[in-house]
Design brief:
Chain lengths: 475, 212, 307
């Protein structure tokens, strides 16, 4: 068993039994659910919005090369730089090299899941740079030295008291200052100086607007605006799939993203950045760099079945509605992207062999597909991922043998009926003689927590044959 | 470095060799998706109330008094200075403030941020109760760093929809390096999903809207 | 609409073997509303366990077999429709057989006649026969759990509820999170059993909080999960399939007396609805009569108990 799978199984099992943690997560999501429902009501037709969004994103993906070139031309026309990073290492190297050449000693970051994906934080630290996360949730988990719990709400697994204790310990906030407002102000105060003193600001991007040649960044706190305004150098780190064809598409996507993500009509700051400070502008970075990351995305692009996964706008809604996410939380997945999108995408980006198990950690309920604002067929993609795992012979041998036996059994009705009858008798025997939940109980995974129906003496087909034959009907 | 570009574009071309269908729908945020805004000004007022933007409808006669009253409430110290975007309309307005008011036409982010900034905007959006600024409205930092941001706008700048506002801004200030659609004061819900107003951006957003 | 529609019964393998009373109830209801039902005995399994776990090579031959039995030339002549008491098995045939047939011309051709002929039970009654009142009587408080396949793949939500509302004496109560997954998920229930159990417990808690006598669904697999979980908890709620409710009180005939008043409802639901003479008496496990005790290791103890 690979160590990734082993870690996952341990983490998932632990989390599945952690009721208090599940309560914290569910309480947070209860607020989200109410806001989401209210948010959807603001649309004349939420389903039409999703439908159009899918069409726009499908077009963006279908013409990705042209749109990326158009975007690049806009950025470079204003003096910005565009770097095309094939791998995570290419992205890290470019940023570190840039920091070194510009004499940068400290970096301030706003939220970027791609920076997690390429493990930028560790690289910056390794190069002796001080790197601070300015988004409140990201800052909190950075202080705790743990990854984000959720792609939109990084600290949703923590209670206020835990955050207050953390700030007291790490920032020296007074013991009594433990309201959400106090803690937010403490973070604001801490971050102020760092925005001003950082030599480089690194942000993510929510969208890359092709026709305007601009980067769109969505936030509530204002930290991304500050990250993009005060430091001398501004770097945007983004996946190549973030393209939106037209500026006017934002009139749909801004409300769509904020509704699905947090239930808001629109987030506080929806910004567009097209380059460094321009002639005649009062302030702004001297340099502007956009790092476009591939890192496996072109492989997903080539996959006709699951190409639509690249339509994802990283709203986090699928995580919010996923019963598995509710139960095991974001950390147990052990990957940058968790929840349904993570379970679909990670095996595609990183390989079925190491990450295929994520696609099996699902009851295939379909709530993710139902909520996705760009209509990605998420839960069906999980089955396709499972198919690929089977084809690559990654599945455990007992399962493969079991499925062959299952096919053999079900290929002949008389065989099935006979053996099933035998199995029923065995089950009754087991129920009578083998203590439920004991090591001898082969059905322990079920019976440890649930009863099984008592096997009947007569199956339906046996009953039918007996009673209908009596009536003279034919079987 | 161009090597990466060629490789990635080459892989994209190869990946899309099956020519998946595209096609962009028109009017993506049209009436089928969002019910049209019947009365933009009323909608703007309602949305501002909901998102906690402090909105004052003013005329030439009362605008100075209104601004004075707004500034008098600002408690957060700094150096007591109000940064005023260097535009004729704002200089004229600032000139009518009480003599003791310290104003500054040069925004220096490294200095204490002062108590407020006073800027113009590119457009207003009725649907969401938003203010669209650009880096031409006093710079990038002026509309995000001070504890209070005061916007001086005219009702003729009000658009019903986001796309119209964006197009207007791009047409008015085509070379701006930043545009930002601002909806209320900064906020966060990262702590137990409890809403806190005033995160890293301004804690208060005030709009003086000339209706005459 | 054909008079006396001829129905081919599609009975999921686990219903056949473990929950035959569900199928028997469906037969009674279909015959009551005027259908002629047949059970093609050659059927075995639709192949979903192999499909859902990605073993499509094992699922394809079973899909082919199913298509030959239910949609071969003879079948098409003999039956007007195929009806199944399971949302998830119906989904397999309707929504997932085409995925299996992708790139397999023989299978694609074989399954083509299934199109428009395969229905889930409540769907068939309401959408095909336009029937909501089958003459059933079930004087209890009942909540409905929306199985994920029935809800999201087949688009069923109103249909089961319309049927339940027409049942005499039945009080339909909506619980919280009706559309949240019960955690069964097929192989998931065994392979990721800790997560599955946690979800089952959440669902069971919602059922209990609804203050009902029974929880019902169109999906026997969900009911095994929910009923099996409820059986381990104090409380008296039992799991029962929609078909069993609709078959309840049918012997009394459509002209049965006035609806049961509240007073006639017993405090403890002692009536079992598997009234069939020759049928099995096993059921979806309900709560024990005694408070749940630690499992005795004593052999033979379980043989004494009858649900």
């Amino acid at each position: 068993m690979s160590s990734t799978l082993h870690s996952f199984e341990q983490a998932a099992t632990r989390a599945a039994h952690d009721r208090p943690q599940q309560e914290t997560v569910r309480t947070s999501l209860g607020t989200y659910n109410r806001a989401l429902n209210a948010g959807r009501e603001r649309f004349a037709s939420w389903s039409e919005a999703r439908h159009r969004a899918r069409a726009v994103k499908a077009d963006a993906v279908a013409h990705l090369g042209e749109y990326l070139e158009q975007f690049e031309a806009g950025i470079t026309s204003r003096g910005g730089h565009v770097f095309w990073a094939e791998t995570a290492a290419d992205a890290r190297d470019y940023i570190l090299d840039l920091a070194r050449r510009r004499g940068v000693r400290s970096v301030i970051k706003s939220k970027s899941m791609v920076s997690e994906e390429v493990h930028l934080g560790a690289a910056l630290e390794g190069a002796g740079l001080e790197a601070v996360e300015s988004d409140l949730g990201e800052f909190i988990v950075q202080l705790r030295n743990e990854p984000p719990y959720h792609i939109v709400t990084p600290a949703m697994h923590l209670r206020r008291a835990q955050i207050a204790a953390l700030f007291q310990q790490k920032l020296g906030t007074p013991a009594g200052a433990d309201s959400a407002e106090d803690l937010t102000m403490a973070a604001r105060h801490y971050m102020r100086a760092r925005f001003a003193s950082a030599g480089m600001g690194i942000t993510g991007a929510n969208f890359l607007i092709a026709d305007a040649g601009m980067v769109a960044i969505t936030e509530n706190e204002g930290n991304a605006r500050l990250t993009a305004s005060l430091p001398r150098v501004h770097v945007v780190l983004t996946g190549i799939e973030k393209i939106l064809p037209r500026l006017t598409d934002l009139a749909l996507f801004w409300p769509l993203l904020s509704t699905a993500g947090t239930g808001q009509a629109i987030t506080c700051y929806s910004s567009l950045i097209g380059g460094p400070r321009q002639p005649g502008e009062a302030d702004g970075p001297e340099e502007f760099h956009v790092v476009l990351l591939d890192n496996g995305r072109t492989r997903v692009l080539a996959d006709q079945e699951r190409r639509d996964t690249l339509q994802c706008i990283r709203c986090g809604a699928c995580l919010n509605v996923c019963p598995v996410f509710h139960t095991i939380g974001g950390h147990a997945y052990g990957t940058t992207y968790s929840g349904p999108i993570g379970a679909v995408l990670t095996p595609l980006l990183r390989g079925e062999k190491e990450f295929g198990h994520l696609s099996f950690a699902s009851s295939l309920c379909g709530a993710c597909t139902e909520i996705c604002p760009v209509e990605i067929d998420l839960h069906h993609h999980l089955i396709e991922n499972r198919r690929d795992s089977a084809l690559q012979h990654v599945r455990p041998l007992p399962e493969r043998i079991g499925m062959r036996a299952f096919r053999w059994l079900m290929s002949d009705a008389a065989r099935y009926a006979r053996l099933a009858q035998l199995a029923r008798h065995l089950l009754r025997f087991k129920n009578a003689w083998v203590p439920e939940g004991s090591p001898l109980d082969l059905l322990r995974p079920w019976t440890a927590s649930r009863d099984l129906p008592e096997p009947p003496r007569e199956s339906f087909r046996e009953w039918w044959q007996r009673t209908r034959q009596e009536r003279g009907g034919h079987a | 470095m161009p090597k990466g570009r060629d490789h990635i574009l080459g892989r994209i071309r190869a990946a899309l060799a099956d020519r998946p269908p595209g096609g962009l729908p028109e009017d993506v945020a049209g009436a089928a998706v969002f019910a049209p805004v019947a009365d933009p000004l009323a909608r703007f007022q309602a949305e501002c109330q909901a998102n906690r933007t402090e909105l004052h409808l003013v005329t030439a006669a009362n605008e100075a008094d209104c601004l004075t009253a707004v500034l008098a409430r600002e408690k957060e110290g700094g150096d007591g200075t109000i940064y005023v975007q260097d535009a004729p309309a704002l200089r004229a307005l600032a000139a009518r403030l009480p003599a003791a008011t310290q104003t500054n036409l040069q925004f220096a982010p490294a200095q204490p941020a002062g108590i407020a900034s006073l800027t113009l905007c590119e457009a207003l959006v009725a649907r969401t109760g938003s203010v669209l600024v650009s880096s031409r409205c006093g710079g990038r930092a002026a509309t995000i760093l001070p504890p209070t941001h005061i916007v001086y706008a005219h009702a003729s700048q009000l658009h019903a929809e986001i796309d119209a506002a964006l197009l207007a801004a791009r047409s008015q200030s085509p070379t701006a390096s930043l545009y930002s659609l601002i909806t209320g004061p900064s906020r966060t819900s990262d702590i137990e999903k409890m809403l806190v107003l005033g995160a890293h951006g301004p804690k208060r957003l005030t709009v003086l809207l000339r209706t005459d | 609409m054909v008079t006396r529609p001829r129905i081919a019964l599609f009975i999921p393998c686990f219903v056949d073997q473990l929950l035959p009373q569900v199928a028997q109830a469906m037969v009674r209801v279909l015959e009551r509303v005027g259908c002629q039902v047949e059970f093609p005995a050659a059927q075995t399994c639709c192949g979903q366990p192999a499909f859902s776990t990605g073993h499509w090579a094992e699922a394809r031959p079973l899909a082919l077999r199913f298509a030959e039995i239910f949609a071969g030339p003879e079948a098409r002549q003999s039956y007007d429709a195929v009806v199944c008491p399971s949302g998830s098995c119906t989904t397999m045939v309707r929504n997932f057989f085409p995925a299996l047939a992708h790139g397999d011309a023989a299978l694609a051709q074989a399954i083509a006649p299934l199109h428009g002929r395969v229905f889930e039970f409540s769907e068939y009654l309401v959408r095909q026969l336009n029937v909501r009142d089958v003459g059933a009587s079930f004087p209890y408080r009942v909540t409905f759990h929306d199985g994920c396949h029935a809800l999201r793949e087949l688009g069923l939500y109103d249909e089961p509820r319309e049927l339940l509302r027409a049942v005499r004496g039945l009080e339909l109560v909506e619980m919280e999170e009706t559309t949240e997954c019960c955690g069964f998920g097929g192989a998931f229930s065994m392979q990721m059993s800790d997560i599955s159990a946690a979800l089952g417990q959440r669902k069971a808690a919602n059922v209990e909080r609804a203050g009902v006598d029974f929880v019902t669904s169109c999906d026997p697999s969900c009911l095994m999960q929910i009923g099996g979980t409820l059986a381990r908890q104090p409380g008296r709620v039992r799991a029962i399939h929609l078909a069993e409710i609709l078959a309840a009180g049918l012997d009394a005939g459509l002209d049965a007396g006035p609806q049961d008043s509240g007073a006639e409802r017993s405090a403890q639901p002692s009536a079992r609805t598997t009234g069939d003479a020759g049928g099995a008496r096993a059921g979806l496990r309900g709560p024990r009569d005694a408070p749940p005790a630690k499992r005795a290791a004593k052999p033979g103890a379980r043989a004494e108990k009858r649900p």
